[in-house]
Amino acid sequence: MAGLQKGDPLPTEIKLHQRSRILEITFDDGQRFELSYEFLRVHSPSAEVRGHGPGEEVLQLGKRDVEIVNVEPVGNYAIRPIFSDGHDSGLYSWDYLYEIGERRDELWQTYLTRLAVEGGSRDPAELPPAAPKAGGCGHKH
User: Fold this and answer.
1) pLDDT digits 0-9 by tens, 42-96
2) Which residues are 70's β-sheet partners?
């Protein structure tokens, strides 16, 4: 995560729109971005998602319905969203939010293409049917 440089745009407003699951962020240079919770989740700057180097990115599956349940400020340079799937380790710096806001369409298309190539889905995986319960000794009763 890059640090803030003098003159970098700073956010003047951050709004969570829970019904549409959109984070709206406005910067002091007039730029305004609407980033879906799903987009933010699959582009988390955390090591869990990005890996520890180029080519180690972990494709995020089933995040279509993810929500942001809370946002914590991190100093004067970032936010840490808490997602409904338990993910909370991504620190979204102002410069990172600005960059992904500017590149949103390109990044989203790259994500959708990778999902298609790898046979992934944006929809949450359905749980397999529960196995029949056995008695304590392992035999069905």
Assistant:
1) 999 999 899 888 888 899 999 999 999 999 999 999 999 999 999 999 999 999 9
2) 82
Residue 91 within a domain: yes
The domain of 63 spans: 11-118
Query: Residue 12 — φ and ψ, nearest 5°?
Result: -105, -20
- pLDDT higher than 70, residue 127: no
Number of domains observed in the structure of the chain? 1
Q: Provide the pLDDT for residue 33.
A: 98
Q: How far is CA 106 from the centre of its chain?
A: 16
Question: What is the SS3 assignment for 63?
Answer: coil
Residue 3 is assigned to a structural domain of this protein: no
Per the domain annotation, does 49 fall within a domain?
yes
Q: What is the CATH number of the domain that holds 98?
A: 3.30.2020.30
Residues 6+ apart with CB under 8 A from 50: 44, 56, 57, 58
Q: What does pTM read for this prediction?
A: 0.84
In a domain, 66, yes or no: yes
